[in-house]
Design a protein that fits this description.
The chain is of the alpha/beta class and 269 residues long. Helices cover 41% and strands 14% of the residues. The protein is built from 11 helices and 8 strands. The site of 3-methyl-2-oxobutanoic acid has 12 residues, from strand 6.
Amino acid sequence: MTTTRGLRSKAGEEPITMLTAYDAPTAAVVDEAGIDVILVGDSMGNAVLGYDTTLPVTLEEVESRTGAVARAAEDALVVADMPFLSFGVDEAESIHNAGRMLKEANADAVKIESGPHTVDLTARLTDLGIPVMAHLGLTPQHVNRLGYGRQGTDREAAEEIVELAGAHADAGAFSLVLEHVPANLAGAVTEALEIPTIGIGAGPDCDGQVLVINDVLGLDDWSPPFSKQFGDVRAEMARAVGEYRDAVEAGEFPSEEHSHVEETLEDLY
Ligand code: KIV
């Protein structure tokens, strides 16, 4: 079973693997493949709930899907992503909300899109026994301020990321996601920190990599330029659904093999 401590000792020895999942069957496949960490990302907003951004995702949606993933995952560390405004407004409420992910949904840890306002919260949650994965660089919950572009591209912005990364590590975060930042910045942060960095669009020098499962499987008709499609599941789904439609329309399904005739009912009519 992967633990936050195990993840820390893997860093620098072997690349850490992380993928998102939002339901039990997908989590089972990801877990059986030996992926270290399953993130129940608020990317579910775009990936499965049909929203344009992650902002409308609710605590209840993340909690329900985290429960499904945790029930299916036997070995992977399950991390629940704290949705927009479920943390950082009021400390007691943030603790209560993060605690729900562990107490009620059986997550192992939470992820928080980080900034200057989350350093103290990270320390408080960690002290209380709620492990925190920090997240810097492109933080989609700040889309209205930052957009979706690459972050940390000038010296001032890069230095702010290095500083915040150190502050969150000092506050007790067990790992840090770096999203859509220059590879050399991610390499420098990785070098400077003792906790593992997990990159997405952050080059090869992080301790691990994460992608959104839809992008890996080829489920959507768009994916970000930094992700890579490793399968064409959308095409396979379209083929299977089309074959089912054709079989029903042609009267070929259900056949005798998929039906049951009860002999005691033969004189019913
Ligand atoms: O919500 C999510 O899936 C994420 C990853 C892209 C890191 O935050």
